[in-house]
Structure formats: C-alpha cells, structure tokens
Amino acid sequence: MASGIYVGYSDKVLRDFYAIPGWGVPYVVGLSVLTELAALFPLLLVRDRRPRHPRALAGLAWTASAVTILVALSQVVVAFTVDSRTELASGAPRTVWALAYGPLLAVPVLMTAVTWSYARRHPAKGRPGGRDGR
Question: Count of CB atoms within 10 A of residue 87's CB?
C-alpha cells in the first residue's frame, strides 16, 4: 500500500481511510517494521548463546507475551462485536476470513510457551533450576 502497488483498494479508499499518500505511508511502513521485530523477538529466547541480562530479557518476554494475549483478545472482541455488523459478510467471506486469521490466535500461546521455556532455562539468581544448573 505504501509503495503504491495496487492491493485491491481504490485510490479514494486509500486517500480517505488510510491517508495514503500522506501520513499513512510512514504509519504503514512503521507497522510493518514493528511486526517484523515482534516476529523475530522469540528468536532471542531460543538461541543457545547465553544473553548478558537473562532476567531482563525474561521480563521483557513476559511483557511481550501479556501484550500479545491482550491484543489477541481485543481483536476477538472487535471481530465478534463491531466487525460482525459492518465489514464481515456471512457465508463464504466470513469462512475465508476465519481460515486466514484464525491461526493468528496461536501466536500468544506460542509466545507464552517460548517465554516460559526461557524462564525455566534462565532462573533468577539464588533459585535452583535451569538446564545448566546455574
């Protein structure tokens, strides 16, 4: 959308709803960058090298996990309240939408599982546990 490639929206819709061209371009690009960073974050938690501040990273991971859960829940609420009466038609469009976006509800569960595993491997100082016994 930001680069001007046709993505199915008319120029009027892009201008009126997404402010493209205009402030919508940096917004869409910023969302894309933020999404990629969020998608790559769990890689910090599964790599073998020991981080410099494992507890700080664990705290950040728990925060990210909580945020993903809250965002997913808010999207479910919006989908079944606001969007169900406006944009989502019943029948095939709703089925396609559910099949396309339904798997995204696994992201908070998977992020929490990776965070929990990381927290087990890097326990707080003074607590026994972890795979290397530190």
Answer: 10
What are the pLDDT digits (tens) for 13-44? 778 877 888 887 888 888 888 888 888 888 87
Two structure tokens written together for 82: 């606001």
Q: Cα–Cα distance between 44 and 41 in angstroms, integer? A: 6
Q: N- to C-terminal Cα distance for the chain? A: 49
CA distance 39 to 29: 15
Question: What number of other Cβ atoms are within 10 A of residue 117's Cβ?
Answer: 13
* Residue listed under structure tokens 């326990």: 123
For the whole prediction, is pTM greater than 0.90?
A: no
Q: What does the pLDDT read at residue 11? A: 79
